[in-house]
Design brief:
Blueprint lengths: L3 E13 L8 H12 L21 H7 L9 E2 L2 E13 L3 E5 L6 H8 L7 E6 L3 E4 L12 H11 L4 H15 L14 H14 L4 E4 L8 H16 L3 E5 L3 H7 L2 E6 L2 E6 L1 H10 L22 E8 L7 E3 L4 E8 L9 E8 L5 E6 L13 E8 L7 E11 L2 E15 L12 H4 L16
Parallel strand pairs: 4-8, 4-9, 6-7, 7-8, 12-18
Antiparallel strand pairs: 1-3, 1-5, 2-3, 9-10, 11-13, 13-16, 14-15, 14-17, 17-18
Helix pairs in contact: 4-5, 5-6, 6-7
């Protein structure tokens, strides 16, 4: 028998760009009341028009704003982050919510966690929700770690005796015993997120909501968190998990929800959801990166184009074991000293598992001057990945600050090749994902 703990019906969320409000509460109230009654904006001067305020009914305005479309639509100063979302989550289900940056994942979690309200639609939730949406969610910076544990427990509706019973377990999991009586504003981001997750996971919520914030922690902590979420699920509680790590989603979740430009493109099995997500990746067939809107960083340097060369000509497919050059064209208005720059090219498989990284940090670059427009070239003498398709993350930092990061910047198709020069093609099922250039010898033991 179906027992949904979360039911979402025709959920939509819009945001207005630009100025918020009219400046006073009284004016805002007058504008809102006029809009409810279908009247013109009372604050407009004669002859002025308001593109975001019409005298039409809410239903017509909603239709005109593009709710029926399949892509985010901007109408004047309004952008729709979610449009007509419908799904249910059963008790004990672990749902992975995946999608590229800007797909609406975080907005959906904020609505489910009651951090923000929907523009239209209904959300029904049965049980207490503990949410970890960003570093320090629900923490008061002036309070100590101990005080924040009790504050969060009270918010979840727990009494002091219940929190006392879980306190030692929370502190032990977060590994912050020495700093438990220190104001959390003095915590590092890693300490913050460890304690926040420990509180959210241990205070017996019926529903645990976790965003990509776990990426702040180190690998050991992430593994511990995934294990804890698995334990929570086995206890019959519900978990909503947002991540770009497809391997984690695959191992933890029993169902998946794929968001694309604010709409659900697939809901069902985790394996099919991951496949759908990968197939929807906006991998440009051309080589331009300048128009990618899903990048992050302060823009001190921006990648504008990539090229693959075999040292003689441009190529679209790399042969295993062959030499290649990955050419990254860039623009930079601020950077003048090369020593300030770090660049990395990260290769991952279709599940998001990192296979290898080429980092400028571990190689000596001869130039001292850094041109504001130029190209960074990574040379690989013998490409080590076996036959298949691999996805590339581009990352750079300037003076220790993230400058440009593009998830799934492009992919590399690799053809079979005689990597070892043995006349035989390496078998992926035997060698794994990548090959290591090596040799053997036998020596006699001296008696």
């Amino acid at each position: 028998m179906s027992n949904p703990v979360i039911s979402v019906e025709n959920l939509s969320k819009s945001y207005r760009l630009g100025q918020i409000g009219t400046g006073t509460f009284a004016n805002d109230l007058n504008v809102w009341w006029a809009k409810v009654r279908g009247k013109p904006n009372p604050l407009l001067r004669i002859g002025e028009t308001d593109p975001t305020f019409t005298a039409k009914s809410a239903k017509n305005a909603k239709e005109e704003s593009g709710l029926r479309g399949s892509k985010n639509q901007e109408d004047g100063e309004t952008i729709w982050a979610l449009k007509d979302i419908n799904f249910t989550v059963e008790q004990g289900e672990v749902l992975g919510i995946i999608g590229k940056n800007g797909a609406g994942k975080s907005t959906l979690l904020k609505i489910l966690s009651r951090v923000t309200a929907p523009t239209s639609g209904k959300v029904k939730v049965k049980g207490r929700i503990a949410s970890l949406l960003e570093v320090g969610t629900g923490f008061h910076p002036e309070l100590t770690g101990r005080e924040n544990i009790y504050l969060n427990g009270a918010i979840l509706g727990m009494n002091r005796r219940e929190i006392d019973r879980k306190f030692d377990e929370i502190v032990d999991f977060a590994e912050v015993e020495k700093f438990i009586d220190t104001p959390v504003k003095r915590y590092s981001s890693g300490m913050y997120v460890r304690l926040a997750f420990a509180v959210a996971a241990h205070l017996d919520p019926e529903i645990l909501v976790v965003d990509e914030v776990l990426a702040v922690g180190d690998a050991a902590f992430q593994k511990k968190c995934l294990g804890k979420m698995g334990e929570v699920a086995k206890e019959g509680r519900t978990v909503l998990f947002v991540s770009h790590n497809m391997a984690a989603v695959s191992s933890l979740c029993n169902n998946g929800l794929v968001l694309q430009t604010g709409c659900i493109s697939y809901a069902g099995s985790t394996e099919r959801a991951i496949s759908e997500y990968i197939s929807n990746q906006s991998m440009p067939s051309e080589t331009l990166l300048s128009d990618r809107s899903d990048r992050t960083g302060n823009g001190a340097i921006r990648f504008t184009r990539y090229l693959l060369w075999n040292r003689e000509s441009k190529i679209s497919i790399v042969q295993c074991g062959s030499p290649i050059e990955i050419i990254l064209e860039y623009e930079s208005k601020e950077l003048t000293q090369l020593s300030d720059l770090k660049v990395a090219i990260v290769f991952s498989d279709s599940l998001g598992r990192r296979l290898s990284t080429c980092s400028m940090e571990h190689n000596i670059v001869a130039q001292k001057k850094f041109p504001t427009i130029g190209q960074i070239i990574c040379n690989i003498d013998r490409f080590p990945l076996l036959h298949g398709r691999y996805y590339v993350l581009l990352w750079s930092s300037v003076n220790g600050q993230p400058a440009d990061r593009i998830e799934n910047a492009f992919y590399v198709d690799v053809a079979e090749g005689d990597f070892f020069g043995s006349g035989k093609l390496p078998r992926p099922e035997y060698h794994g994902s990548f090959l290591i250039d090596h040799s053997w010898r036998i020596e006699e033991i001296a008696k």
